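Form 7-S
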Amino acid sequence: MVDLSPFIHALAVTIFIIAALTDYFDGVIARRFGAISDFGKLVDPLADKLLVMAALVMLLGQRDDLYGDPWVPPWMVFMVLAREMWVTGLRGVAAARGIVVAASSAGKVKNVMQMVAIVFLLAHFPKVTLLGFMLTFQVIGLYLLLTSILISYWGAYEYTVQVFRLVGILPEVPVAVVPLVVVPVVVGPVVVDPVVVAPEGATPQGETAKKSI
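Output:
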């Protein structure tokens, strides 16, 4: 365990917050000035992973003074690492075939939650009262990290399906062809042009014939 002085502890939290904010604003600036590239789509998620994993691995070395437990459970770090290795491998497979797949919305939500969770885990000691319960920042951080893990595995599933379809491992979702029925309409002695009728709830293909009365 590294015995942190209050100054070093506060400095570690501040440096991580600055790093997380720069990671966010570089994306904002890139979109603002149209500087988005395939290289950025590939490398930016990798930078996020390195930042998160570096912080989590360092937190494993910090131990609770009372019980000697690490500040973050090893199994959580393993779950995060396993997911990131899988997604990074998929991204590499797609890139080898000239396909660049940007991060999904679930991945972005996961990333934000992980960053916030790590800030709470690094702060560790402060306490707040929520719904009548006294909670340390560490406990709040662990719940946020667990939630981000659940979101990340759902996002990994979506990402896996998307990449597998793009590289041909899974078939594309077939587009249903709606059967059309041509029905002649009779109004009195006048026969109206045929009308295209589709089953209930479906949108017919082509334009519906106009009446010529």
